[in-house]
Amino acid sequence: MKVVDARGKLCPQPVILTKKESDAGENELTVIVDNETAKSNVLKFGTKLNFNTRTEDKDDGIYVYLNREVCNECEVIIAEESEKNNTVNKSQKKGFVFGSDKLGKGSDDLGKILMKSFIYTVSEKKPYPDFMVFLNSGVKLTVKGSDSLDDLKKLEEGGVKIVSCGTCLNFFEITNDLEVGSVSNMYDIVDLISESDNTVMI
Questions:
Q1: In sequence order, what are the residues at sequence separation of 6 or more whose Cβ sits closer than 8 angstroms to the Cβ of residue 52?
Q2: Largest Cα–Cα distance in the chain?
Q3: How many domains does the chain have?
Q4: Among residues 87, 30, 17, 85, which one has the least CA distance to residue 62?
Q5: Residue 84's pLDDT band (boundaries 50, 70, 90)?
Q6: Distance between CA atoms of 139 and 39, rounded to whole angstroms?
Q7: How far apart are CA 79 and CA 125, in angstroms?
Q8: Residue 190 lies in a domain
Q9: Mean per-residue pLDDT of the chain
Q10: H-type alpha helices, 49-202
Q11: Running DSSP on this structure, what letter comes out for residue 159?
C-alpha cells in the first residue's frame, strides 16, 4: 500500500499528490493529512475515482484509506474515454486572463495565497490551457520575486503561451524584471482572446 504524507500541505496539494499516485496505477493508498478540509477533499476525490474510502484519526494525523478493485477491462475503457476527451479538448483553444495578482476580493493576503494555489493547480492538471494573459497588477505574477514563477515556467515549457501587458509592466516600472513569457500589446491580446473558443477571466 502506497503512503502519501500530505501533512502540512496547503490545498490543493493533498489531492494532487493523491492524483499522481492514482494516475501511476496505485489502487491502494493511505493518505495522511492534518485537517478536516484536506480529509474531505481527498475523500471526495477518492469517491470520484471509484475508490472505497474510510478514515481513521490517529495521534499523528488523519489517515484516509483508499482502495479500489482492479478491473482490466474497466481500465481500458477509462483510458479510451480519457484519450477521446483529451482529443476533443485539444481541438478547442482555451485560456485564462489574469487581471490581478490576487484571487477574489476581501483579504489581500488570502487572495495572494489563493492565486498561487490556482496557478499551481493549473500547472498540475492537463490538458494545459493554450494561453495565459496577464493584465494590470496580474503582471506582477510574471516578474522577479513572484511566488508563481516556477509553475508558470513549467506551463510555458509545456507549450502554454504566456504574455504580459507591456503598458501594465511599464506602469508598475517592472518591465526589466519580467522572468517568464513575453511582453505583448493590447492589439495582440485582443486577437488572442478573439481567436479563443473559451477564455476565462480570473
A1: 66, 67, 68
A2: 58
A3: 2
A4: 30
A5: low
A6: 34
A7: 16
A8: yes
A9: 89
A10: 72-90, 108-124, 149-157, 166-171, 186-194
A11: T
Bridge-partner residues for 32, per DSSP?
A: 5, 63
Q: What is the DSSP string of 79-102?
A: HHHHHHHHHHHHTS-EEEEE--SS
Domain that holds residue 33: 2-67
Per-residue burial over 132-150, b if 16 or more Cβ lie within 10 Å, else e, is: bbbbeebbbbbbeebebbe
Query: Which grid coordinates belong to 173?
Result: 516600472
Residue 128's pLDDT is what?
95
Same domain, 14 and 54: yes
pTM above the 0.85 mark? Answer: no
Within a 10 A sphere around the Cβ of 75, how many other Cβ atoms? 12
Tally of CB atoms within 10 A around 123: 20
**Cβ distance 12 to 121 under 8 Å?**
yes
Confidence grade of residue 92 (pLDDT, cut at 50, 70, 90): confident
Strand order in the sheet with 182-184: 182-184, 161-165, 131-134, 94-98, 198-201
Instruction: Find the CATH number of the domain harbouring 173.
Output: 3.40.1260.10
